[in-house]
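Sample intake sheet
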Amino acid sequence: FQVKSENKKTIWSTEEVPEGSEFDDTWDPREQPEYEILFKQRVGTEDVFFGMTGKDPSTACCEDLVIKIKLPETKYSDITLDIQDKVLDLRTPKKKLLLHLPYPVNSKEGRARFLSEEEILEVTLRISRAFDFIN
């Protein structure tokens, strides 16, 4: 068995290590909050009434990914959020969430808002995918 890399002292290549594994901490006692992943589409009358653009209700036609995370007894100032292309990392004093996202996202263009009445953090991220006949 021989490792193929530029550096002979490297024991694995970067392709073998999944993105976000540096955040994994199995010894962290904080519990994972409840969350929900939703997909969001931008549609117009040409989509709804005429079906001209070929969009359908599948996730392949969605432009945005919305993650709703329940954070009871949490203040906005206690939330630490880090988003990468395929990973969402959320930390609070009582909760921890490391979420591998179903699609790559544009980590630079996103929006997060904390709904204090419902104690929910809502994160909206733009899905980044190659252009095809739908997108």
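Comment: Strands lie at 35-40, 64-70, 80-83, 87-91, 96-100, 105-115, 120-127. The chain has a mean pLDDT of 81.
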